[in-house]
Write a structure and sequence with these properties.
The complex is a heterodimer.
Chain A: H1 8-16, H2 22-40, E1 43-46, H3 48-63, E2 75-79, H4 106-113, E3 117-122, H5 162-169, E4 175-180, H6 186-192, E5 195-198, E6 218-223, H7 226-236, H8 254-258, E7 266-270, H9 280-295, E8 299-303, H10 311-326, H11 344-355, H12 358-371, H13 376-400, E9 403-407, H14 423-427, H15 434-439, E10 443-450, E11 456-463, H16 468-482
Parallel strand pairs in A: 2-3, 2-4, 7-8, 7-9
Antiparallel strand pairs in A: 1-3, 4-6, 5-6, 5-10, 9-11, 10-11
Chain B: H1 5-14, H2 24-38, H3 73-77
The chains are: A alpha/beta, B mainly alpha.
């Protein structure tokens, strides 16, 4: 049995039937990381010894009987944006190169309490700012997928959770945590042929997750099946008094929602997502998805979200503004990198020049400008008002439909080196994912098929606030219809 | 609106990010490119629209005014790049 090919749901059963041990399961993934991480660079920090120790403890618990927690012995990758007690947490920044948190984030603490085993900290765009995982201070991540007939060209895994997506796609971990501010779970999931959900803002605690844009940041799971994402979100989600934006409502049974009938579900198709220049194969995948949901018993409804086209521009005011405020804490005094200076200001300026990479510096400067005296109303306040109009678009649509179906990204994965000269061109990768982030509603990417070049294309299901269940139900139906069994060229069992 | 070099220098100063004169042309070009692109928001009619400051699902909660954390001095200082005993250090700020 190829242990690295199992789903989390499959491994849960196999572990409990003692078909294999947690030590074997974790060991297979650790071996795959040792063999492939030098090439893919999906992990910044590999914690093999800690993982194997945890696996032995998991085996002892599993030997004890039936009541082992749900994720006992399941090897996961953790985006290096979640603080992990005693394990270096870098945010892929030189600024935090040597930062070892003395505490555990709520999301990772929830996973640990459910028995999960962490095999390492996954690479990302620096401070989660990027769409191609090329801004990491620890080097870019290689997408394990290759264009058909082209083994040479290195493709990007998407971003910012590119290391998590590449690790899960290449079978280096069974699942991973991601964070999504404007598409950072869904876009890399689409590029790497896996599933990933950004839950409703407020569903997962942000406590202990390094902040980028606090009104948008939301943690979520990435895995190879929709059901595995449901299993992971079940553990990650929940109210937390330590996050003032955490919402105190019950977490429903997400796994059960995956099997739900779609009979009578209304699926909205937003006209504004048919953007000019969309590749025909992306449009074709979308049409196919519409047909699959119709066949599953859904009623397809054309809807309009008129403010969609302002989503990206609004995002690139709101997110940098919040980023400039959040990243003010990196001052070279209390934690993180320090570059000495003659005065306090000189220390700050030298530390922040050296500690932050070009994209992070650019966003801090942009955010500082839109918040500065004389420009606040023209940029930031205006953007907050447009954001409200974008949210109202979704509220209006969800009066008549249960979910929305769109493509996840306007293209399959592109090559390293493409789209890199102009920040705005890079930002356009998030055109379909940003509006749901602005509204705070849950959204999931699920693999739908391959492009002509042999690369995965994802479809996005967007739901009402706190109705992840309908998202899981529709995404599961798409997954069953797509029967996506394609695997990337670079993966654990390929020697 | 278009940023001139003096404005870029002023923003960098506000953000406490050191920049060299040689950085200015590229930064000015990139920031102006982004600003030019977000000008499109000026065509949106925002009269009477409330600004959205969050998703508004969580009401700010009250709690008892009691200490919930503490006695963690060594943990707090464990990542300080230049601690001196139980203190952070900074360059001299008062003559």
């Amino acid at each position: 049995m190829m242990l690295t090919e199992l789903t989390i749901a499959g491994a849960q059963g196999g572990l409990r039937r003692r078909e294999f041990s947690a030590t074997e399961l974790v060991g297979a993934h650790v071996a795959a990381i040792e063999r492939l991480n030098g090439r893919l660079n999906a992990f910044i920090t590999v914690t093999s010894d800690l993982a194997l120790d945890a696996a032995r403890r998991a085996d002892a618990i599993l030997a004890g009987g039936e009541d082992a927690p749900a994720l006992t012995g399941i090897p996961l990758g953790i985006k290096d944006l979640f603080c992990t007690d005693g394990v270096r947490t870098t945010a892929a920044s030189r600024m935090l190169e040597a930062f070892v948190p003395p505490y555990e984030s709520t999301v990772t603490a929830n996973l640990l309490a459910d028995g999960a085993v962490f095999v390492g900290k996954t690479n990302l765009d620096e401070f989660a700012m990027g769409s191609a995982n090329i801004t990491s201070a620890f080097g870019s991540v290689e997408n394990p997928w290759k264009r058909a007939g082209d083994e040479e060209t290195v493709l990007v895994p998407g971003g910012s959770s590119g290391g998590s997506a590449a690790a899960v796609a290449a079978r280096l971990a069974m699942g991973a945590t991601g964070t999504d501010t404007g598409g950072s779970i869904r876009q890399p999931a689409s590029y790497c042929g896996i599933a990933g959900i950004k839950p409703t803002y407020g569903r997962c605690s942000r406590w202990g997750t390094i902040a980028f844009a606090s009104s948008l940041d939301q943690a979520g799971p990435m895995a190879r099946t929709v059901e595995d994402c449901a299993i992971l979100l079940q553990s990650m989600a929940g109210f937390d008094v330590r996050d003032s934006t955490s919402v105190d409502i019950a977490v429903p049974d997400y796994r059960a929602a995956c099997g739900r009938s779609l009979k009578g579900m209304k699926v909205g198709i937003p006209a504004e997502y048919r953007v000019a220049g969309m590749p025909a194969e992306v449009e074709a995948a979308w049409e196919q998805g519409i047909a699959w949901l119709r066949d599953a018993g859904c009623e397809i409804v054309e809807v309009s979200l008129p403010y969609t086209k302002y989503g990206l521009a609004t995002y690139y005011i709101v997110a940098p503004a919040e980023c400039s405020s959040n990243l003010a804490r990196y001052d070279g005094v209390r934690f993180g990198r320090r570059v000495p200076g003659e005065s306090l200001d000189a220390l700050y300026e030298a530390t922040r020049r050296e500690g932050f990479g070009a994209e992070v510096r650019r966003r801090i400067l942009m955010g500082t400008y839109v918040l500065s005296a004389g420009y606040y109303d023209a940029y930031y306040l205006r953007a907050q008002k447009v954001r409200n109009l974008i949210r109202k678009d979704f509220e209006n649509a969800f009066r008549t439909v249960d979910v929305l179906l769109t493509p996840t990204a306007p293209s399959p994965a592109f090559a390293q080196g493409e789209k890199m000269d102009d920040p705005v061109q890079m930002y356009l990768n998030d055109v379909f994912t940003v509006p749901a982030s602005m509204a705070g509603v849950p959204a999931m990417s699920v693999p739908a098929g391959l492009s002509a070049s042999g690369l995965p294309l994802g479809l996005q299901v967007i739901g009402r606030s706190f109705d992840e269940e309908s998202v899981f139900a529709a995404a599961s139906a798409l997954e069953r219809a797509a029967g996506f069994t394609h695997r990337p060229a670079v993966r654990a069992e390929v020697v | 609106m278009s940023l001139d070099p003096a404005t870029v220098r002023r923003i960098a100063r506000l953000a406490r990010i050191g920049i060299d004169e040689s950085d200015l042309p590229a930064l000015q070009r990139e920031l102006n490119g982004i600003l030019g692109w977000i000008e499109q928001l000026n065509e949106v009619d925002i009269d009477g629209v409330e600004p959205m400051v969050g998703t508004g699902h969580a009401a700010l909660r009250m709690r008892e005014d009691v200490v919930t954390d503490g006695d963690a001095r060594d943990a707090v200082l464990s990542n300080a790049p230049d601690a001196a005993g139980p203190y952070y250090t900074v360059p001299k700020v008062v003559e």
